[in-house]
Write a structure and sequence with these properties.
Blueprint: E1 2-7, H1 14-23, E2 28-30, H2 31-39, H3 42-50, E3 55-56, E4 59-60, H4 62-69, H5 73-101, E5 105-109, E6 124-129, H6 132-140, H7 147-156, H8 160-166, E7 169-172, H9 177-191
Parallel strand pairs: 1-5, 1-6, 2-5, 6-7
Antiparallel strand pairs: 3-4
Helix pairs in contact: 2-5, 3-5
Family: Belongs to the CoaE family.
GO molecular function: ATP binding; dephospho-CoA kinase activity
Main location: cytoplasm
Length: about 200
């Protein structure tokens, strides 16, 4: 089984690209979706213990949590110490489940794959990219996003050029959905066992 790591900076179209793999029948583990799931269950008690008042009825209130951690590196690190191991365990269970099922190819959607040392968890890496002006336009169109927030997020992420340099495959979403879908098909073809 080949494990493909899918990553890309904010606003590059990674979530859309992950959906394209899923639509093509490739099992995809989405780290962001896993966090949502964990916040609605297993992580809530741990988050509440670290950040009192941020969870209720067994679920994390993302707005309250955001207010508790944004702007504080120490708080963000404390939250990451709780969440990252849970997401990794969730991804490991996904990998093992698909290995048992005999899946030839799976995708782990890992937003900060290079930044968090996730390269050793995957066989190949696909980086989702787009021109900087398109990225900026997409991100600034998000509700509640400001230029300051965008710059702060970018400062924590490895530059796109460096991610592309380290990638085994590139998916360019700047040229529209169909071009990106063709990139996805090429990757699947390259990583799928050839029928003998």
């Amino acid at each position: 089984m080949i494990i493909l790591g899918l990553t890309g900076s904010i606003g590059m179209g990674k979530s859309t690209t992950a959906k394209m793999f899923a639509e093509a029948g490739i099992p995809v583990h989405d780290s962001d979706e896993a966090v949502h799931r964990l916040y609605a269950g297993p992580a809530a008690e741990l988050v509440e213990a670290e950040f009192p008042g941020t969870a209720a009825n067994g679920a994390v209130d993302r707005e309250k949590l955001s207010r508790a951690v944004v702007g504080s590196d120490a708080a963000m690190k404390a939250l990451e110490r709780i969440v990252h191991p849970l997401v990794r365990a969730d991804a490991n269970a996904f990998v093992e489940d698909n290995r048992r099922k005999g899946a030839p190819l799976i995708v782990l959607d890992i937003p900060l794959l290079f930044e968090t040392g996730g390269r050793d968890r995957v066989d190949k890496v696909a980086v989702v990219t787009a021109p900087a002006d398109i990225q900026r336009e997409r991100v600034l169109a998000r509700p509640g996003m400001t230029l300051e927030k965008f710059d702060a997020i970018l400062a924590k992420q490895m530059p796109d050029a460096e991610k592309r340099r380290r990638a085994d495959f590139i998916v360019d979403t700047g040229g529209g959905m169909e071009a990106a879908r063709q990139d996805v098909r090429r990757i699947i073809d390259a990583l799928s066992p050839k029928a003998g």
